[in-house]
Amino acid sequence: TSPIPKSTPARTTTSSPSAAASASTPAYRLPSPVAGGCGGTQVFAGPGPDADLGLADNPWAPATPADAGIVAYFWYPPPDLLFAHGPNDLPKVLWVSHGEQAAHLTIAAHPFNASSPVIRFDFPPASSPVGNYPSAIDLPGPGCWRLEITLGTAHATIDVMVAPAR
């Protein structure tokens, strides 16, 4: 597994009576490892490096290598972050780049430790904020999948478990 990346703890509030008296004292929580990753990827719950974008409660995973500066935020709770192709869902992932920006983020996805099938995706950036690439990941089957990410000259990978279709 990869080490926990450095992040700024997210500020949370409490509802206890004493908290009202000391509302200026923030409560902090750190990210914690959760299920959902596979291969070389660790998924985290809790605030990631982009908690200030309203993503403090989304599970997330840093891409490898860390210096690529790419973080994936998922919308489903762990361990079922992504689902295989089915009639009910098209799992969303928000890719945030803390490094290079490009006209498109591309992904070549294939089962972990297999070279095929390869499913290709191409996602343009969001109009705002800069560095965000919203996506819907539609993979044909469950299991551990490697997502090979290209953003400009940056190349990285994320390995994620894909649950059976719902």
Question: Gap between N and C termini, in Å?
Answer: 28 Å
Helical residue percent band: under 10%
The SS-based structural class is mainly beta
Order of helices and strands: EHEEEEEEEEEEEE
Give a short account of the largest sheet: 5 strands, mixed
Average of per-residue pLDDT values: 86
Strand content: 35-45%
Shape: globular
Q: Give the neighbour order of strands across the main sheet.
A: 7-13-12-9-10
Q: State the total count of DSSP E strands.
A: 13
Number of helices: 1
Which regions are unreliable across 5 or more consecutive residues at pLDDT < 50?
A: 1-26
Q: What is the C-alpha radius of gyration, as a whole number of Å?
A: 17 Å
Summary keywords:
166 residues; mainly beta; 4-stranded antiparallel beta sheet; 13 strands; 39% strand; globular
What does this structure look like?
With 166 residues, the protein is mainly β. The chain has one helix spanning 17-21; strands spanning 10-12, 27-29, 32-34, 43-45, 60-62, 70-74, 82-83, 92-97, 105-111, 119-123, 132-136, 143-151, 154-163. The model is unreliable at 1-26 (pLDDT under 50).
Helices and strands in order, then pairings?
Elements (H helix, E strand, L loop, with lengths): L9 E3 L4 H5 L5 E3 L2 E3 L8 E3 L14 E3 L7 E5 L7 E2 L8 E6 L7 E7 L7 E5 L8 E5 L6 E9 L2 E10 L3
Parallel strand pairs: 7-13
Antiparallel strand pairs: 1-2, 3-4, 5-6, 6-8, 8-11, 9-10, 9-12, 12-13
